[in-house]
Amino acid sequence: MDKKAEKREYDRRYRERNREKIAEHQREYGQTENGKKHLRINNWKRHGIIADNWEEVHAWFMEVDTCDICDCVFTRDRYNTSSSKCLDHDHSIKDDYNIRGVICNTCNVSENSESENRYVYPNGKGHRFQKRTNGKLFSKTFRTLEEAIAFRDAFDIKDYSLG
Fold it and tell me: Most buried of 19, 30, 136, 149 (most Cβ within 10 A)?
């Protein structure tokens, strides 16, 4: 048997003998700040988010307090809620930085555009189209989702004042 095979066999036997000890260590590590950070970053990677410096992305993510779309204040809870933070990314970009912003769970699961910072999401009066450009916000509410999507698809920044 070669050295790699011997090491794999040794590791397998160690895991079998110390299963409870390893599980306890993993539970404890997941409760630490460093453990939570690594779990969050690994989750982002599994979901296809691409970044050059994960430490900076995580620090920025933790600093943001309000949603980029609806400006709701994020809540921190053990479970995901409608106002939990999400790192939004462009699914069409597969080989470069694809992060668009930090948004709430409600805005993340709503119908949104493929292009940057153009969103259609439900609100109390119907569906809202919202676009943020250079810190200025343009927002319009429609009665149906179809109207909002049609407006979003026809939207051209040159034709509208973001006053």
Answer: 149
Note the Cα 23 to chain centre separation in Å: 28
Instruction: Give tens-digit pLDDT for 108-123.
Output: 776 443 334 555 555 5
Closest CA to 69 of 117, 115, 110: 117
Q: What token pair was written down for 99?
A: 């992060």
CB-facing half-sphere around the CA of 32: CA atoms within 13 A: 8
Give CA–CA dist 84/102, Å, rounded.
10
Q: Is 99 left (phi over 0), alpha (psi -120 to 50) or beta?
A: beta
Question: Starting from the edge strand earliest in sequence, which strands make up the sheet with 126-133, in order?
Answer: 118-123, 126-133, 136-142
pLDDT digits (tens, 9 = 90+) for 99-157: 878 888 888 776 443 334 555 555 556 666 666 655 566 677 777 777 777 776 776 54
